[in-house]
Amino acid sequence: MKVLFIGDIFGNAGRRVLAAHLAAVVEKHDIDLCIANGENAAGGWGLTANILKKLHKYGVQVVTGGNHSFANQDILPAFESDPSLLRPLNFPPGNPGIGKTVYTLPDGRKAGVVNLQGRTFFPEALDCPFRLGLEAIEELRRETPVIIVDFHAEATSEKIAFATYIDGKASAVLGTHTHVQTADERVFPGGTAFISDVGMTGPEQSAIGMKTKGIVRRFLLQTPVRFEPSNDGPMLNAVVVDIDDATGRTAGIARVFERVQVP
Length: 263
Ligand SMILES: [Fe+2]
What we know:
- The chain is α/β, with parallel strands linked by helices.
- It is built from six helices and 13 strands.
- It has one domain (about 1-260): Purple Acid Phosphatase, chain A, domain 2, CATH 3.60.21.
- The chain has helices spanning about 10-30, 50-60, 75-80, 130-140, 155-165, 210-220, and strands spanning about 1-5, 10, 35, 60-65, 100-105, 110-115, 145-150, 170-175, 185, 195, 200-205, 235-245, 250-260.
- Strands 1, 2, 3, 4, 11, 12 and 13 form a seven-stranded mixed beta sheet that branches. A six-stranded mixed beta sheet has the order 5-6-7-8-10-9, covered by helices on one side.
- Helix 5 links the parallel strand 7 (about 145-150) and strand 8 (about 170-175).
- The two termini are about 30 Å apart.
- About 50% of the residues are buried.
- Fe (ii) ion binds near residues 39, 66 and 68.
- Fe (ii) ion binds near residues 39, 66, 68, 152 and 177.
């Protein structure tokens, strides 16, 4: 199974990249399943019900999240009605939504998807992603050996540590959240593909999605500044993971970094 995993879709620029270009990428790489982190798709902060619909229309089959998953009230009902919308599994019980799912392709093949959030440098008091992540993977393996984990975290060390911890049990551990694509993609000895961060599908000319002017002001003055999403330099950041359906082992992981002309 060939899986395209798209790094954090950021605002209008990211959405326009997918609208204009996703179908071509899917065709070029012969993709079976498209997963995207959508927690920044609405102006950088969370998702809306309307935007979720659009992402599905563009060809995203499973949407993962992170620390901004619950930013908009508007999206909360979708967590209960759309089984292909995930939020980090390790948020406290009582929050809407699910953190893992099994997605069935039209040809009947199944892929498990798990969404976790790291705990280093985050204010949220979350349950242990290592313990809950391993439990979730072991549960999903009863249905399919093909399992993709979105590990939404700040620290590269936490992401690498988790990937080595579960190496051989999941097909891929793909880092999200920093919006900067890293060049450390590899397959661990047990067959688990890894990258510290897939990057951002959004405006390259920005500070991780926002216009740099406000960000610089914030650093200089150390006072609150209202950040504005940038629309400049739309790009696609993603990875393509090639997974053996029978074993769940990954044969290869390739980065995708494309500057995209959008209408
Ligand atoms: Fe995030």
